[in-house]
Amino acid sequence: MKRLSILLIVGFSISMQRCEAEGTQTPAEAYRAVVKSADLENYSKAARAYRKWSIENDPYRPLYHFTGVESWINDPNGPIYHEGKYHLFYQYDPIVDGMRSKRCWGHAVSEDLVHWEDWPVAIWPDSKHDKAGVFSGNTFIHKGRITALYTGNVVRGHKETYGMLAWSEDGGVTFRKKMVMDDLQRPNRHSPVHWDTQVWKEGDTWCQLIGGTTKGKKQGAAWLWKSPDLENWKLQRNIAPAVKHGRGFWELPYLLPLNGRYVLMVGAGNPYWIGDYDAKRMEFTPQTPTRSVDTGHYYSFNPHMVDDKGPNGSERRIMHGWARIGKPPKTQGVPYWEQAHSIPRIVSIKNDRLWQEPIPELQSLRYDRQSLGKQVLSADKPVQLSSVQGDALEIVATFDRGSAKRCGLIVRANDEAEGTKVWVGADNTFGIGKCPNTHFLKRDDPVVLHIFVDRGVLEVYCDGVAVTHKCFASEDNISVFAFAEGGDATLTDLEAWKMKSMWE
Asked: Cα separation of 469 and 109, whole Å?
């Protein structure tokens, strides 16, 4: 593998030298030449070529977790399903004239939530109300057009923001914009007029749920605003006065109707509560303790998307999220990129909690299936699963915990079983490395770990709970081991697949 790495670097250097000698553009140069263009065909072609080149030359670049074309990305914005297409907007800092741009809305479109096409940058920070960045927001359909409400940022932090209305007259390629909520309308001096937003409609009235804080910064708040026309907005109230959480400021407030109940999620960590919402009183009442959406390297969830691909054409609520994997180790000659998105997750309420599952459409990327039968695991003696190897895998492993205090798999491992542990404990916790979460199985129930290994990202599901983790292992680390600690356990069944690139 090390010899292969050297050959890749040498091959990359030769190809770059050839481009220079022939006077042709590198993939990065070709993309940056069109980055400000609204020409859909040329932009998409250049972006795809750059992505495929980057994946081939960078062992840390994920194959099936969404990343920006290059540079920095964070929050997923405005995910929407419309006329058979999934639109994903996202916080993006493209490289323009050799510099990182102020925050924009990048844009990608898919027909299956798996294979994406890059569309031109949708919204640039080009007005006096968003000159410091086009910050988070969401989209909806109004008068047949994709329409957005987002935070226009002018002064760093929350000091001066505006509520911005944007709409597209060409199917989402370009947007016009208008300021509709003035900084002077803020609920109090510490709470901005606009900071993230959920958007919905009650009869003829438009509603926005916006993050912020109560007077005196005593408690985070989810401020409800209403409007008859999307332009004239009136503050109503904080819908969750009974919820005490955080250090005075909430981002990303979402109130989700699911299975006849409501889930309140806020960005102060990743907490959620299930409860009741009284639309007349405009108040949410929690009925469960505080639980976490994801305790790992994860934030900026966005559960705004709804499609009709559930059983018998029923609606699915789909949550996108920011996998906070940070900046990968530097790979020679590969331009800067940073952060990723999680796998889109189907969310529902089950067993009195938020239930998360990876989209089944991802199975279209599977190949080279491997199946293993029963394997008894002795304490502290990891067993290599020699038929399961790779840096981009999907694994479904079932365990009987036996007398073990912890058991699970070690992925992205070397031949000495040094890698990242994905584990489940006797104390009803599971996790990746040092990031634990809680599952709700009984002690004698079999445990199923659904693991997605994707170069720099790990994402694991167990009993409807999810944990995300960064994993910038050496490209030589492709082995998988099963292990038990503090007692014996049994790996009762395992299926694994290698995973193709979403950009093929």
From this structure: 26
From residue 475, how far is each of 14, 279, 324, 343, 353 by CA, in Å? 21, 53, 20, 22, 38
Position 281 pLDDT exceeds 50:
yes
221 Rama class: left (phi>0) / alpha (psi -120 to 50) / beta: beta
User: Tell me: the pLDDT tens digits for 310-323?
Assistant: 999 999 999 999 99
DSSP 122-142: EE-S-STTSTTEEEEEEEEEE
**Which residues neighbour 9 within 8 Å (Cβ) at sequence distance 6 or greater?**
332, 333
Beta-bridge mates of residue 485: 406
State the pLDDT at residue 13.
46
- Output the average pLDDT for the chain: 94
- With 0-12 / 13-18 / 19 or more C-beta atoms within 10 angstroms meaning exposed / middle / buried, residue 419 is buried
Cα–Cα dist 146/125, whole Å: 19
Coil/strand/helix, residue 372:
strand
Residues across the chain: 504
What does the pLDDT look like over 325-359, one tens digit per residue? 999 999 989 999 999 999 999 999 999 999 999 99
Beta bridge partners of 389: 479
pLDDT tens, 234-279? 999 999 999 989 778 999 999 999 999 999 999 999 999 999 999 9
Task: For residue 473, report the phi and psi dihedrals to the nearest 5 degrees.
Answer: -80, 160
Cα separation of 488 and 504, whole Å? Answer: 42
Q: Which residue has the tokens 């958007």?
A: 199
Q: How many CA atoms lie within 13 A of 124 on its CB side?
A: 14
Q: Are 231 and 216 in contact (CB under 8 A)?
A: no
Measured distance CA(254)–CA(303) in Å, rounded: 8
Taking the C-alpha atoms of residue 465 and residue 357, their distance in angstroms, rounded to an integer, is 8
Instruction: Please say if the pLDDT value at position 405 is more than 80.
Output: yes
